[in-house]
Amino acid sequence: MTAGGRGRVNIMMEAPERSRSFNFSSEELDSSALSSSMSIDRLFPALLECFGIILCGYIAGRANIITSTQAKGLGSFVSKFALPALLFKNMVLLDFGNVIWPFLWSILIAKVCVFFLVCILTLIVASPVSRYSKAGLFSIFATQSNDFALGYPIVEALYQSTYPEYLQYIYLVAPVSLMFLNPIGFALCEIQKWKDQGNHQQSKVVIVGVVVLQVIKNPIVFMVVIGIIAHFVLHQTIPVFMAQFVDGLANSFGGAALFYLGLSMVGQLGKLTKSTVVTLILLTTAKLLLMPLICKDMVDLLDKRNTSALNHSSLSDYAFLYGVFPTAPSVAIYAVYYNAELEVVTAGMVISTFLSAPIMYVSAWLLTIRWTDPQRLMNSLQNVSFNISIVSLVALVWTIAVMFLSKKFKRLPHLFTVNLFFAQVLTCIGMILWNFVVKENNFIGQVLTFTLLCTSLYSTFIWPGLIALSLVLLKSEDLKVSPGMLVIAGWGIPALITAVLLICGEKMFGVIDAAFFYGRAQVIIPGEVIFLFSDLVHFIVYEHQTEYSCNLSGLIISLFVSLPPSGQCESRCESTDCLLVQVEELQQVADRQVARHVLMCLLLTVSLLANLSSCVWLLFNHNPGRLYLELLFFCAVVNYGQGLLSFALFGLDKHLILLPFKKRLYSLWYGKQEEQPQSDLPEEIRMTCTQFTKYHKQQCFHDIVKKRRCGKKTMVDCFLGCELVEWLLQVGLAQDRGEAVLYGTRLQEGGVLQHIKQEYSFQDSPLYYRFMA
């Protein structure tokens, strides 16, 4: 393949998911061949730093090291002290002489366009009952980016050594939302409150006054205004006596904000409902796709300065990267304040944050490639596919082993999920093999590898739809469909498509791209398959909210309670066939993990839509351009990196890995302290146990403790961990479920309660515990 001597260059891309044949004009290639305007080598460490701290915060929240109530204190510090100090400092030091104002107006226009587009569509489509609050919050969601905690470190990593002045635009662009757009959203939410009151006691003037007061009271907006005034009064210098104080607060923002972001993600995806899925997809698309495209186009349109092509291109690329920044956590605070659309906003914040990472990395990486070298482009795409296939394969082997060891593969929907995992494994293997056979002139080897790769890849397009269908069928007792027939369809349809391509397709000689191995038909047929099965995923009926299995365990154990009692189990249950333990084990296998399957189907639907867009784009546009190449790389990542998603959702099984790990730690730590005297316990534990025993134990015993059969002739007075958590919340001994778990843990450490077999620490789950005498 060559690129010389002609006005147009034809590039055949290496991405085995579909056909890629597209042309770039020589002018575009020449302008893109300029030296890189960003430092890509620092991007991955910056992403690792940011998302590593976010992960630490999430683990701290998930492990209940920091409860949601305690996290609110950290959030208040970040939003009311650290961030205002950071903004004040940078507003004072800002150099307005180096500001490229067309860039600022471009971002402003882009945000206004997206804001009003989302607002108008929501007002048209949403139910009249809550259309104004939805329009306000959804518009804020689509335009307010996480500029400081997540955006600034990434911009710093990319442009610190090339265009350091780009960093200051973060502080200029952020107030666009805070001071101009957000008040419009707040006004819509206040109108909704005014309509909900019925008697319309507040006048329109009062509503406007409330909105203006909210904006003025916002410490972020207030300090931006003060900082701009101080900029001119202090001549871009912070006085020495307050410089270290301001620096101390400002420097504390980065890590604290990212850690708080991780804390705020805990438990949010469990709030998804059937009515929020489509809304979530549309909002995420508006934030991560529509916003960056409009930002880039506005800069290209408005930046008419007489500068080099490199400067203009770098500013346009910067606008695109800025648009990809995910939604800020503060939007969730607005949703809580107005008590509206909390499920959509919080779940969308989580999804947009993690989807933005690969988009930002791929975008920045592609913008540094020299476009005049087609061979480098093909090799880069092939290397990306090959490398991510290896990592994904390792993750999938672990995940499949977990599925079989937990014995969940025998029941729906996990039966279909395991088939999806096997399809993903074969896809990774096919991609790894293709990386070697494509370098050899072995036609038979290429055909065999092509058959394996295409069949398994097309199968990964189909299985999400079948998993979604299984979730629907599990709720419908009247509909009886043989799982075996669906399994045959999941593998048979892709095999049939591949066979048709092998028989009817025209082999393209001299092409090293598996996606274009059999010509144009290899674009059309997968596009139709993707469309059909991505449409099926939208029929997911998610009416089963994430619940605790208290009702299930109560139903099962009630079968044994009807037997005549013979005795009382007074101490640790030593029976090898304890009925309560059997119930706990049964629940581990019976857990269908509906929320995880819905989330997996949702995220895989996004990848299906990306693949469909790539097919349509290529079929109707013979000159796709640079954005299509970015979509191409994104499709490669999501197609061959599916195993990472599978591992994240199903690889760390709660009952097989996490709980046994905690159980082992518990036995190692507390097993040695069994005989610890009461006087040696920490003061906090002794006070909690004394308070509960003296004032609350009798009432708690009366409310939640029940006699349950644990053996053939024995009964035990016990309760579920989730029942005690609910009781502690009801009586006000805990403010949230995390605090309730900590309270129960103290009672266990103080000897007030214990697990029936002393195998588990106290957990907010359907495990059985008993009070000690």
Automatic annotation (TrEMBL):
GO terms under biological process: intracellular signal transduction; negative regulation of BMP signaling pathway; transmembrane transport
Domain DEP residue range list: 705-773
Record membrane topology: Multi-pass membrane protein
GO cellular component, one term: membrane
PROSITE patterns named in the record: DEP
Keywords: Membrane, Transmembrane, Transmembrane helix
Pfam families, A to Z: DEP, Mem_trans
Name of the featured protein: DEP domain-containing protein
Source organism, top-level taxon: Eukaryota
Places the protein is found: Membrane
Transmembrane portions of the chain: 43-61, 73-93, 99-123, 166-184, 205-234, 240-263, 275-294, 318-337, 344-366, 386-406, 418-437, 443-474, 486-503, 523-542, 598-619, 631-652
